[in-house]
Amino acid sequence: MTPLLLRLLVPAAAAALALGASPLYGALTAQSRLSPALQRQLREGLPLYSVVVTFSFRPEFFHITKLQQIGTVAGVGDDRIRVLQLTAAQVREIAGFYWVKKVEAAEEAGPP
Amino acid sequence: MKRGDSWLGVLPFVALVAAWWVASHSGRFSAGALPRPESVLAAARELASTGELQADVLASLGRLVLGAGASVLLGAGLGILAGLNRFLGDLLLPLASFFSAVSGIAWIPLAIMWFGLGTVAVTFVIWNSIFFLVFFNTVLGVRSVPRIMEQAVRTLGGGHRVLVLQVFLPGALPYIVSGIRTGLGFGWRALIAAELIAATSGLGFLIFDASHYFRTDRILVGIGGIGILWTLMDGAILGPLERRTVKRWGTVAEP
Amino acid sequence: MSARSQPGPALLARERPAGVGPGPGPTLPASLRALVRSSLPFLLLLAVWWAATTALHPRATVLPSPAAAARAAGPLIAEGILPDYATASLKRIAFGGGLAIALGVPAGLLLGSNRLLSVAFTPFLKFFQSLSGIAWLPMVLVWFGFTERTIQVVILYTALFPIVFNTMTGLRTVPPRLADGLRALGAGRWRLVTDVWLPGALPSIIVGIRLGIAYGWRALIAGEMVVGAGGIGFLLFQSRSFQQTARIIDGMVVIGLLWIFLDAGFLRPLERYTVERWGLVQR
After folding, report:
1. What's the Cα-to-Cα distance from C76 to each of A69, C57, C179, rounded to whole Å?
2. What are the tens digits of pLDDT across the range C218-267?
3. Residue C93: is it exposed, middle or buried by C-beta count within 10 angstroms (0-12/13-18/19+)?
4. Fewer Cβ within 10 Å of end Cβ, chain A: N or C?
């Protein structure tokens, strides 16, 4: 039985590696996506944050839905989405997506 | 099978219906969540009286017969050709393998794109679910025929037609039938899924449409119809087909 | 009942339904030459596809060129869509399939251990297996809405019945004389289970698992199309809404590759292991 389990573990591990690589990379580089102003706000420890998430492409249904599941989407632009009512953990979660370019505090960023 | 065994098979169904009756009459569930058996029967009568039920059943069956028939004939026919030719078989087997991995159901959106909603799209999806499987099994079946049989017939002066009809076809038949049986399992499921998404008639459409109005009694009518139809088909056609062909060219020990 | 010492092809075909997945195992090529040989059919397919689009000039929404399809893959990955959806689908089949095996095999063993129980439940299981989770989808939608739970229930149901049924029948086909023999030598109950019943039923159990996962995977794709909670099936469905045919094709290729991964990675090794370990069982 054990050689079988080992044999099955290999593809399982391979899948976990292949699919986990990008979220892991995103999580490791999350800090670099947070703007300095936002990082300051996070250090202050506000109850809720409002951010503008910028992408290097036009956001699609997938991105809007994903952010809507985390916070409240308040506006969508050509390359950005405004999200409100986020906890600090949620802000970091968004910053952890490798397909996000940068996350800024809502005040410093322009519309939407 | 001992006497009385067939009666035993009815018991779980009876128990289920009894439990259903009790639960739906208990007042614990709303009619929308768990319709009563009587409501389902009433809905069946209602659908039958307008002819809607019959039309849906015919639509589903028609698409299945068309899609399955075409894929079995093409699959077996092309499969024999490919099985006889080593090069062709080697070329096409991996492709058939990949396309059956894609599964008929994954073709639904593309089928809608190409053919719009309706019978053509559904039949196309069914065809995709069955054809590659039957083709694949047929090629394997033809290849599995021991060469000595082919050589024996050739030395006795048999030509191509004799070879195919008397050696390869019977030899490959268990594989072909097995492939048809498995393929129909997939094809039937693909039919339902395709009708859910891509049709405006048929049993799959019936149950999906009913869910939009929370007509759970109609959903159960449709589900019952689907189950009964498959059981009839499997029992009346597929089972005997496999038993008949396999027994005739008998290579299987019956359990 | 005529038994044969040499299992015939139909027995082999039934034990290893070659149609449940790609043929006798997509084995990894042993050499570069083999790699070229095995990729030849697909290169040919690409060539035919390319020729068709160049010669016929179909609308991109009907049939995009291979280049267009490849181009569409970039954003799908760079924007995070494909990894997210593929992961979601794999997680669902792993969870639903695993649960179906964990529940189905014991249930099947229980039913199979008693002749009356197995006779009573055979038509019942066959009937509900034929119903397939996809047929129950509208009902489950009414109960649980367009949620993750709906998808999970459908997968679990779809995978469960083939597993229970095949486990049950597998147990019943183990020749009793094998158990009698071991019992005569003084083997206890537990020993009988591990050395006679389980190994005897295992080929059938594996067939059930393969069938259950195959049906479950397809039900998953269909369910994702309808429920709309992410996943590869949803990618296909949504891309059609936006007429992004290149994405549909990319998604279909991914589905094919994912199934090949599931089959070659898990289902076939499972099957090969039991066949190697205990050989083809005489029925």
Report:
1. 20, 25, 56
2. 999 999 999 999 899 999 999 999 999 999 999 999 999 999 999 999 99
3. buried
4. N
| Residue whose C-alpha is closest to residue B143's, from B91, B78, B89, B100 | B89
Query: What is the distance in angstroms between the Cα of A48 and the nearest Cα belonging to chain C?
Result: 26
Q: In chain C, which among 92-121 make CB contacts under 8 A with chain B? A: 116, 119-121
Q: How far apart are CA C112 and CA C119, in angstroms?
A: 9
CB-count exposure of residue A99 (10 Å: 0-12, 13-18, 19+): buried
CATH code: domain B53-248 is: 1.10.3720.10
Instruction: ipTM value, please give it.
Output: 0.92
The domains located in chain A, with CATH, are: 2-105 (3.30.70)
B237 pLDDT band (50/70/90 cuts)?
A: confident
- Average pLDDT, rounded, for chain A: 90
Plot region of C104 (φ>0 → left; ψ -120 to 50 → alpha; else → beta): alpha
CB contact under 8 A, C81 and A62: yes
Q: Which CATH architecture has domain C87-278?
A: Orthogonal Bundle (1.10)
B155 vs A66: which has the higher pLDDT: A66
Mutate to test the interface with C, among B3, B95, B110, B112 (most CBs of C within 10 A): B110
How many CB atoms neighbour CB B183 within 10 A?
A: 30
Q: Does C152 touch chain A (CB under 8 A)?
A: no
